[in-house]
Amino acid sequence: MRIALFITCVNDLAYPGTGIAVTRILRRLGHTVEFPDRQTCCGQMHANTGYRAEAMPMVRNYVDVFDGYDAVVAPSGSCTAMIRDQYPRLHPPATSVAARTYELSELLVDVLGVTDVGAEFPETVTYHPTCHGLRMLRLGDRPLTLLRQVRGITLVELGDAEECCGFGGTFALKNPDVSTAMLTDKCARVRDTGARVLAAADNSCLAHIGGGLDRHRSGVRAMHYAEILAGASS
Amino acid sequence: MSQPVAPATGSGRIRTPLPFPTAAKPAVADPQLRANLHRATRTIRAKRARVVDEVPDWEALRDAGSAIKADVQRRLPELLEQFEASVTAAGATVHWARDAAEACRIVVALTRAAGADEVVKVKSMATQEIELNEALEAAGIAAYETDLAELIVQLGEDTPSHILVPAIHYNRAQIREIFQRRMPDVPADLSDEPAALAEAARAHLRRRFLSARVAVSGANFAVADTGTLVVVESEGNGRMCLTLPETLISVVGVEKLLPTFTDLEVFLQLLPRSSTGERMNPYTSMWTGVTPGDGPQDVHVVLVDNGRSAVLADPVGRPALSCIRCSACLNVCPVYERAGGHAYGSVYPGPIGAILSPQLTGVADNASLPYASTLCGACYDVCPVKINIPEILVHLRQQAPHPPAERAAMGVLSWVMRSPRRWAAALRLARAGAGPLGAYRMRRTGARTLRRLPWPGSAWTRSRDLPLPGPQTFREWWGKQ
């Protein structure tokens, strides 16, 4: 099976560790992963802010780059949801590759049939299900199923977990007061858990919540769950 | 019929006087309001979740509700004429209003013709939308709200902030204070127990019911094949208005039609569970024209367009007209919970308001509302008629006027990102520019983050640190493999 990694623009620039983690997990499981370097961005920010025409070249580029692969994996619920939910409407030729694009936990659990990726992570972790993964992709408990198999991990439940953190892409900049109010409540729920690590499937949401946690010197580390799954068991 | 005219936009209380982010500021900064909204929305949404979970065919009911409404939208003109014929045959009179002003003129004229200088009102979104109370007052006619929460808002000289619970922004103590200030006959030692407050309102309203000659209502549903109007309420005050006065005037948005009486079977299951979290609605009043010797003998229906034809003309935005005003989307919306209903500047707040108001007025008039959402999708999940609110929000953002600086930035970013070569170069440049800054911050503070940026970055750094790129991008790591 030819698996391609769609790293996403934010991860490529600011969170290379997440892409490295995905690569390590898949290689450890015996798969070959390719990184086509003509990939750019899925166009979500443009499309969701009202700039569909400006998003279209990125949509077409995604199809050109990834159409030849059996599966595309992206370490982002939000970008995967953009591709799977919006691409077929925006650009019908994208329908086929959109259906073969998976968020990491979907690829592992549904396509590769794996729940134990052989990881070890001796920390207390709470998991925030990010909105697009939760309600557009319907990831359900796939990421938690993977995390439960990690050696040494202590998972604690996050209160009001399904409530949005207030990021919403350009929402955080256009509506800073409401966004901050939502963030404050999310950070309080995270601190209530006593966890030392906050995990999620989207580094954009984690940059938001983590940025709030850092501002208040909470000592909680925000981390993509792929980086937990990459932690090798000795 | 008159000559065909392009669908007009709506008027009335459906426009934001201030952009949403500005209008939300006072609410976000008001801890009492935040606490009231937090408590109230959480209570209702937990109740809703409980009674929805116990219905095994809930998803099938949602599909049915959505399909019936889509059918109504496909053949609205035909159904409206059928409704007019049915209700006229049953002894009522139908009036057609293009916009808010025309609807108000019709109600004023009918009230005057009945020789009345006051009306009692059943809770109704349509009359709030067209600002009927203000129009009646200007014509020297007093309008008395009889729904408990609408009465609180009216006595407080305020406007509703929620579709179902207009006074959701008040707590019990605040309501007692309004009653003591504005009800002349209220006991001096009135407690803030809900039963005592309800009793005070009951005593206050009873005289109005007995003396009123004209009642004004809206309608939850208007049935085309029988000409039946339906009002769904919890208190019984609506039932008093609908049965006691001689004249009954109902103001109904044209989208409220249902093809047949049996379609009510679906909606009378969907609505109470979605709105109040009740299995069955307490007071469901239905009337079909005039019944000689029983109830109002002079019955009128004012069918209001007020921008709805314009919404109907847009196939993507059209499902907003399926809304049955249950307010489940408000109760589950994290933005509504923090900003409150008044921030939306329209009688339709929350997620449904963010897609309905801009479509009724034209998007340019309500350009901030489609952006008053994180697109988290919680509203779509609870909507009993499956309105894909996030999809319509994105569709309306497409039509909204974009600020020039934002448009320029988006254009440049798109130009960079559409080209693999330019994007790779931009990544190298961003890493080279910000990487050393990140390393410097790392040495100074132990974290690769920025704490303060000038505008527009300040919108981010006011409440969150900004992560900086590390020493290499992902593709640089990959290249070294």
Describe the structure.
The complex is a heterodimer of chains A (234) and B (481). Chain A has two domains: 109 residues, Rossmann fold, CATH 3.40.50; 107 residues, 3-Layer(aba) Sandwich (Rossmann fold). Chain A has 13 helices and eight strands. In chain A, helix 12 links the parallel strand 7 and strand 8. Chain A is globular and about 45 Å long. Chain B is of the alpha/beta class and 481 residues long. Chain B folds into two domains: 290 residues, NagB/RpiA/CoA transferase-like (Rossmann fold, 3-Layer(aba) Sandwich), CATH 3.40.50; 69 residues, no CATH class. In chain B, strands 1-10-7-4-2-3 form a six-stranded parallel sheet, with helices on both faces. In chain B, strands 8-5-6-9 form a four-stranded mixed sheet. The mean pLDDT of chain B is 95. At the A-B interface, helix 1, helix 2, helix 3, helix 4 and helix 8 of A face helix 1, helix 15, helix 17, helix 18 and helix 19 of B.
Q: What keyword list fits this structure?
A:
heterodimer, A: 234 residues, Rossmann fold, 13 helices, B: 481 residues, alpha/beta, six-stranded parallel sheet, four-stranded mixed sheet
- Judged by helices, strands and strand pairing, the structural class of chain B is alpha/beta
Second rung of CATH, namely the architecture of the largest domain in chain B: 3-Layer(aba) Sandwich
Q: Give the overall shape of chain A, derived from the CA principal axes.
A: globular
How many structural units, i.e. domains of chain A? 2
* Distance from first to last alpha carbon of chain B: 75 Å
Show unreliable segments of chain A: none
Report on the biggest sheet of chain B: 6 strands, parallel
User: Could you give me the name of the CATH homologous superfamily of the largest domain in chain B?
Assistant: NagB/RpiA/CoA transferase-like
How is the biggest beta sheet of chain A arranged?
4 strands, parallel
Structurally, the number of domains of chain B stands at 2
| Helix share, percent of chain A | 40-55%
The percent of residues in helical segments of chain B reads: 40-55%
What is the overall silhouette of chain B?
A: globular
Give the strand content of chain B.
5-15%
Strand content of chain A: 5-15%
Number of strands of chain B: 12
Mean pLDDT of chain B: 95
> What value does the Rg of chain A take, in angstroms?
17 Å
Q: How many individual β-strands of chain A?
A: 8
Q: What structural class is derived from the secondary structure elements of chain A?
A: alpha/beta
